[in-house]
Each structure stands twice: as C-alpha cells, then as structure tokens.
Amino acid sequence: MTYLNFPKNFLWGGATAANQLEGAYQEDGKGLSVADVLPQGKDRFAIVNRPDFNWTIDKSKYRYPNHQGIDHYHRFKEDIKLFSEMGFKCYRFSIAWSRIFPEGDEKTPNASGLKFYDEVIATCLKYDIEPVVTISHYEMPLHLVTKYGGWKNKRLIEFYKHFAETVLTRYFKQVKYWMTFNEINSAWAFPVMSQGLVANNGGNDRQTIFQAWHNQFVASAWAVKIGHALDPKLQVGCMLLYATTYGYDANPVNQLATLQQNQAFNFFCGDVQVRGEYPAYTDALMADNGFKFTDLDFSAEELTLLKNHPVDYIGFSYYMSAVVETVEKEHAEVGGNLISGIKNPFLKASEWGWQIDPIGRRIALNQLYERYRKPLFIVENGLGAVDKPDADGKIKDDYRIDYLKQHIEQMGAAIHDGVDLMGYTPWGCIDLVSASSGQMSKRYGFIYVDLDDAGQGSLNRYKKQSFNWYQRVIASNGTDLG
C-alpha cells in the first residue's frame, strides 16, 4: 500500500554545502578551508592520504573545482528565487567557518563573511523559506589543521564554540533549525573532511579518530547549550551518514558482524549526541580497535556537558544501503557514499555504483526513531547522474524523478509506521561540485548548471524536468508524485 499522509507543517526543501557551491574561495577575507586543498578526481582521498601530503594547493598537478563552485557567492539571490519557485518550505545550507574566522582561531569575526550570510538568510526569509543551517560541513579552516593538527587537538573545542556562539547569537531570531556537524560519523572511513586528519597526522589511527570525535561531541554539546540559552525553542540537531545495513545471509556470523558494524558506523555518534552518554558497547568497540576508553583525554565536566545538552533532533543522509559478509570473500563490490561494500543482488545501482534501496529508507527511519524517539529530518538524499540537455536544450531526468518518487513513498510509509519525520531536503537541489570526486558531471539537482568537469561553461541555470515535478510534490504536500 502507498501512504502519503505528510504532516501539514512538513519541511520540504533542498540541501547544499558552502564548499561545494559558493566558490569565491579567497574573496572578501575568506581563509582557506580543508575543502580548498582537495584535488578533483575519484582518487582525491588516496592523494591526501599519501605520506607526503602537505595541505597545499598545487595547480600544476590538479584542478580544485571548489574554488569556483557554481559561483553561488555571487548568484545566491537568483538561486534562492528558483528554490522559491519550486515552493521550498526550507533550505539547508552551511556557513563556511573560514568565511567567518579565516584561520579559525581569531577573536574577531570577518565582517564581510557575516554580511554575506546576513543576505543569504534575508533572501530565504523574503520568500518564506526556513533556513536550516549546518554550522560545520566539511569545511573547517585549514589553519586549524596545519597549526593545531585538526580535531584531535582539544583546543578546537574552544575555537568551534566561539564560531558557533558567533553565528547562533547573530542569527537565532531568524534561524530556528541548526545542525552542529555534517555526517560526523563519516570520519570512520574518511576523517580528512570532518576532522582534518589524514594518514600523516593520525587519520589511520582509530584512537586518534575517537579522540577527535569526543572533542566534536563536546563542541556540539556547547552549541546546543548556547542555542538553548538564546532561545529554549531553538532546534539544534546532529547529522549522521546512515546506510541501512543487511547481513548477506542468515549465517549468525554475518548477523553478528552486521550488528557490530551498525554499532560502529550507524549508531555510535548518534548514541552519544542524542542520548548524552557513551553507549554500553563503547569499551568493546574501542578494545576491538586496540585501545581503551580511559586512553582518551576527557574530563568529568565534559561528560556532564554531554549528558545535560543532547541534540533536539536527528538529521541524516540516506543514499544507499550496505551488505555485510565476513565468511565468503569472493563477492562483487560496489561504491557508495564515502564507503564501499558488497553488491546486493536484489538492488540496482547508480552510475557511480551506489545501490538504490528505497525500502532501506523506511527501515532506516524505523531503526532511528525506535532507537532515539526524537524527531528525524532527512537532510540529504538523491541520485547522482550524468544529465545532458537534449537537442532542444531540455534536461529530461525521469530517472531522478523515479528515484525520488520511490523514496518519498517510503517516507510516507515510515510516517504510517509511527515515525516522527519533520522534513526532507534532497541533496544538491542545484547542481554543485561532488564531495567524493570533485566532479560537476555527477549531478543531483533540480536545476542544471552549465559547467563541466574542466570548469568550462556559462554557469547559467536551467530547470530540469524534475524541477516542475518537485514543485508539484511540494504544492500537494507529497500526495502528487505523478
């Protein structure tokens, strides 16, 4: 059966990140971020994990598409107007830390950076679009890595706290919904973007990653505390990368491995941020990775802060599901959102190998809500594909419509199951630079941007077929998926 009874105040919208669309990477006082030194290409994470990687930009070897993005910095009014035309109720975006504090450790914020976000937020509100702001989305100031070593250093807690307090204090009257860190658990696989860690500064060491997580948990709790002091009704959430995970078969060995992978990847960061304490399996998880919880640098005051200031809701990305097999090693592998895995024979995959699993979305919603009993917000989901204008200049992306339709149907089914789902912001509502590969050709948007992987194009915006479709979905509050 199909269930499409969405709440009256459901937050339909779209999602982006500053480092993937703004461009203007050194304009108006902005400092360099971690994203600014990531080269283009499917092997960008392998490059930064080489022993000789030194956090510099080498344009003689690589392209850096984040530097230009899609020039949203100069075109945001045009873009948000298009979002309004689609009927967006909300727009999820991030505030680039290095626009506000170019090196991350300054006392005084960059006035030009604040002015930019003043205008972005004002433009959203002009069209009755609720801003949903991610405080840190894969774009920490590079200086915090090169001088302090990234999030393994506890000094970053104070720097983040100052940044969060600056933006929360300035915007809390206009912005009701916040998230502290984007896909915080992604550091399990690739800590470079969220923690500033690579192979030569601790990125391959689990204890270092867990220490960085602890520091981020404390920083997140500070943001919640600051936000609630400004306005108790402010909603400050966490944000997880979630991949529904199945055992390959009924072998109990694979079922146990699936449970343990869920604990390590899907649940650990959420357990701490939502429940306010480290979960019962913490000692076992850390022992399996070669260290003890008491090896971490933490204080009783920090644990009390975590307990007293858990997040208000769970934001999460959902693109795909995963399969665990620990017995037989000969299986075809597929790609994924920062993680790869075993091919599921029951599922089709995108052009980038991400397994398409709408029912896994319903399972994810049920798993998360039953575990935490706090509102859920799907803040990323979508289909990366090569979209090409036809002879008439039209972009017919019926494959994207079909993907999103199936996932929205499963959202409705999860609400029928009893899940409290507050909103849905498909990823890359306008084409932008891919985080995993730095490509423009991997497109997610309802709006086509004329820009190729070589950085060539007019940057003009064009409505895809999915633009009008999503407009109808929002206007009907999810009942017209036609």
TrEMBL record:
Coiled coil ranges: none
UniProt entry tagged with the keyword Hydrolase: yes
InterPro entries: GH, GH_1_N_CS, Glyco_hydro_1, Glyco_hydro_1_AS
One MF term in the entry's GO annotations: beta-glucosidase activity
Record's keyword terms, sorted: Glycosidase, Hydrolase
Top-rank taxon, per record: Bacteria
Cellular component, GO, one term: cytosol
Enzyme active site: 380
One of the protein's GO biological processes: carbohydrate catabolic process
TM annotation in the entry: none
Family that this chain belongs to: Belongs to the glycosyl hydrolase 1 family.
Name of the protein: 6-phospho-beta-glucosidase
Native species: Lacticaseibacillus paracasei (strain ATCC 334 / BCRC 17002 / CCUG 31169 / CIP 107868 / KCTC 3260 / NRRL B-441) (Lactobacillus paracasei)
